[in-house]
Design goal:
It is a single chain. It contains 18 helices and 21 strands. The chain is of the alpha+beta class. It has 4 domains: 299 residues, FAD/NAD(P)-binding domain; 141 residues, Elongation Factor Tu (Ef-tu), domain 3 (Beta Barrel), CATH 2.40.30; 71 residues, no CATH class; 53 residues, GidA associated domain, C-terminal subdomain (DNA polymerase, domain 1, Orthogonal Bundle). The strands form 5 sheets. Strands 15-16-17-18-14-19 form a 6-stranded antiparallel beta sheet, with no helix packed on it. Strands 6-2-1-10-21 form a 5-stranded parallel beta sheet, covered by helices on one side. The two termini are 45 Å apart.
């Protein structure tokens, strides 16, 4: 173990992955959190993964992270979304037992000898010669540190809204974090205000389940983690679906003025792609209904999460609107839905390592960077944890590019785009999504993870076995690919699938996921080769480094908009500069000429 202490402010999904990455790399991590019992708590929906988010979980796992493994252990139902579309956008999603998941995470973190947990609140930090040196707690206590990772979630000056009722909280029932936003501003950082929401929790016994549609999971799916034992047979509990109606919509429209969001009480901007029910009814007035998903929050739970009905309407209005749906005629709310408003750090002030561009050794990850979702937070926490160690070792930062991982797309977007609403990962955000399929996460990232010592010995062994199996199967199949009756040609024609292949002599001991990846590569090989050639052509832009202190004022033929944005956003590469809105190809050419001089 190395003596340097890395402090993490916050114990959510970002903080946990950061701490675990630091531990695996041989450093000590100290998590400072308002409530040590809440480590890894799933504060909103009882699910992990989903569209593009499932890709992130697979990548976190390939880099040694814990989220996928414990989601598998706590799984109630597993599905692969988007299966009607091409395999590039197939996305794994697990309905999980929130209590089990948090317990697994808690035990795993608290028994890790390299991780210390302190109950407290970080409200400021000191610097020496431009580098973080100490954190300051609300109790006035100072703790020395070699690096600081802020993972404060939605707690920074958190404000909950339910109708006209407003109160300060980080999450329902938990106190907010105050003082850190002001400290960041004092140190020269720009912060903003965002909003997110959560739906009501319903009492299971008050629902007429006979008037709902059953939604089943897969019987024998591929799990998130390569380290999960095979075969993988999750519980496969049912979820259920109901639809709103025009009657529901009329009721909500009539009471719209009571919504905190529509009354003007909320300053922060909400997530465009995860709108509240008020938003849906208002913006999509021509839609006769919206689907709502009834999701159990744990095994034999009496508390049902109503996915799709995020709201900040008064509790009474929420109840009366739901009662217009036949299955909810006698519905009772355990807890109303609410909106939460919170401060965030404008993420363009960060490098792709998630380190501040101005304060050495200061990192941030998760919703404080303007993202939404457990998966986005965990991915950032992992990268911040790795790079905090790299910073202390005075080594080159660990950076994933857009053609390497969804994590690379996520962080590149955060650091180059104007984030003025909660950022959510989508497959459409990844221009190289054919290469970034969820089934290729191990192949893409584990060799890099092993090279950088990001994995335990057990993890490294498991991933190497996967890769060796893949290479061996591919080698066998490609040897006879020109023969008309070869298995390779049969896969290309669609005559056989990976399931058929698993019954073939010599392949029946190979894991099904390996065979699936091989089959997918063979089917898409032509497109994959074209995509790889396209990446090679743009590689020079991505590799051309721009010094963070580079002066754009000396390039006279830049447009004013480009000069202003480049100076403010400080892109790290020419490729990043080319993706900034308002920077056109002629501006990029001018920068390239200036750099060459």
């Amino acid at each position: 173990m190395k003596d340097e202490n890395i402090i993490i402010a916050g114990g959510g999904h970002a903080g946990i992955e950061a701490a675990l990455a630091i531990s695996r790399m041989g450093f000590k991590a100290t998590i400072i959190t308002l409530d040590p019992k809440a480590l890894g708590r799933m504060s909103c929906n009882p699910a992990i993964g989903g569209l593009a988010k499932g890709h992130l979980v697979k990548e976190i796992d390939a880099l040694g992270g814990a989220m996928g493994f414990f989601a598998d252990k706590a799984c109630l139902q597993f599905k692969t979304l988007n299966k009607s579309k091409g395999r590039a956008v197939w996305s794994p999603r697990a309905q999980v037992d929130k209590l089990q998941y948090a317990n697994y995470i808690n035990n795993f973190v608290k028994t890790n000898k390299n991780i210390n947990i302190i109950k407290g609140e970080v409200v400021d930090f000191d610097t020496i010669r431009g580098a973080v040196s100490h954190v300051i707690l609300k109790s006035k206590k100072k703790i020395k540190c070699s690096a600081l990772i802020i993972t404060a979630g939605t707690f920074l000056n958190g404000l909950i809204h339910i109708g006209d009722t407003t109160f300060r909280a980080g999450r329902m029932g938990e106190i907010p974090s105050t003082g850190l936003t002001e400290a960041l501003s004092k140190h020269g950082f720009t912060t903003g205000r965002l909003k997110t929401g959560t739906p009501p929790r319903l009492l299971s016994n008050s629902i007429d389940w006979s008037k709902t549609e059953i939604s089943k999971g897969e019987k024998n799916p591929f799990p998130f983690s390569t380290n999960t034992k095979r075969p993988f047979f999750p519980r496969n509990d049912n979820c259920n679906i109901v639809n709103t109606s025009t009657r529901t919509h009329k009721h909500i429209l009539k009471k719209m003025h009571l919504s905190a969001m529509f009354s003007g009480k909320i300053e922060g901007v909400g997530p465009r792609y995860c709108p509240s029910i008020e938003d849906k009814v208002f913006r999509f007035s021509n839609k006769p209904f919206h689907q709502l998903f009834l999701e159990p929050e744990w095994v034999n739970s009496k508390q049902i999460y109503l996915n799709g009905f995020s709201t900040s309407l008064p509790k009474e209005t929420q109840t009366s609107a739901l009662k217009t749906i036949p299955a909810f005629k006698n519905v009772e709310l355990i807890r109303p839905g609410y909106a939460i408003e919170y401060d965030y750090l404008v993420p363009s002030q960060l490098k792709r390592s998630l380190e501040s561009k101005t304060v050495l050794g200061l990192f941030s990850a998760g919703q404080i960077n303007g993202t939404s979702g457990y998966e986005e937070a965990a991915a950032q926490g992992l990268i911040a944890g790795i790079n905090a160690c790299k910073y202390i070792e005075n080594k080159k930062s660990f950076v994933l590019t857009r053609d390497q991982a969804y994590i690379g797309v996520l962080i590149d977007d955060l650091t180059t785009k104007e984030i003025n609403e909660p950022y959510r990962m989508f497959t459409a955000s990844a221009e190289h999504r054919l290469l970034l399929r969820s089934d290729t996460a191990v192949l893409r990232l584990s060799p890099t993870a092993i090279k950088h010592n990001l994995l335990t010995k057990v993890q490294a062994s498991t991933y190497e076995e996967f890769i060796n199996n893949y290479n061996n199967v591919m080698s066998i199949l490609t040897k006879n690919q020109r023969k008309q009756n070869s298995i390779y040609k049969s896969i290309l024609r669609g005559d056989i699938s990976f399931l058929d292949l698993s019954n073939e002599k010599g392949f029946n001991s190979i894991p099904a996921e390996v065979l699936f990846s091989v089959e997918t590569f063979i089917k898409y090989k032509g497109y994959i080769i074209r995509e790889e050639e396209r990446i090679k052509k743009t590689k020079s832009l991505e590799e051309k480094i721009i010094n963070v202190n580079f002066s754009y004022n000396k390039i006279y033929n830049l447009s004013n908009e480009a000069r202003e944005k480049l100076t403010r956003l400080k892109p790290e590469t020419l490729g990043q500069a080319s993706r900034i809105a308002g920077v056109n190809p002629s501006d990029v050419a001018s920068i390239a000429i200036a750099l060459s001089k």
